[in-house]
């Protein structure tokens, strides 16, 4: 089968472009053939793949397991990709709010940036071959791994001070203030206030090596075409990250408050 041989060869020759792959992927499409193609391609690389035909199956799957990435079709009869993304981001179940959601589509707007603008992690055009899919997933995972996995790195923040406890206490205090302000701004979709909050947060988050999270939201806030729902979804993610920062900073603070305990 020439087509299969070509794909295998392409995968080998360009293997160096694939740096890291997800372990568990949830694929959503109302077309069983497309689901089977994606499942087989991922399976050949040892990636666990769960397939779903509609939003109901997606919710059930995510309630039972956490996935590294969701890859969804855009045009589906019951719930399209945009509605599915909103459904996940407005849910308190599992990692619904933070799991990267990417799009696969046969539509001609895949390179327009419309999907990233609405909050998707990226877009791949159908039909795709195995290397194209793996390279795409590798790009998504590599880009999001720093921002959605691992702890905050306090080393750069603390290297220029001798009073670690005071510095960490300030981070907690300012983060709690920013969280409260963001919650208030989100309730009325006050983009200007959100922009000011993000601008104020940026220097510290750069030192914590999490500034890419803020920059994604910053781009959306400055885009006049972005929908309020998209702003709300990203504001929720920022607030979740602020809560995480507060929690981790308090844990770090305990190391210096009781050094002999």
TrEMBL record:
A single GO BP: phosphorelay signal transduction system
The record, for SMART domains, names: REC
Keyword annotations for this protein, in alphabetical order, are: Phosphoprotein
According to the record, the signal peptide region is none
InterPro entries per record: Bact_response_regulator (IPR050595), CheY-like_superfamily (IPR011006), Sig_transdc_resp-reg_receiver (IPR001789)
Pfam families of this UniProt entry? Response_reg (PF00072)
This chain belongs to which protein, by name?
Response regulator receiver domain protein
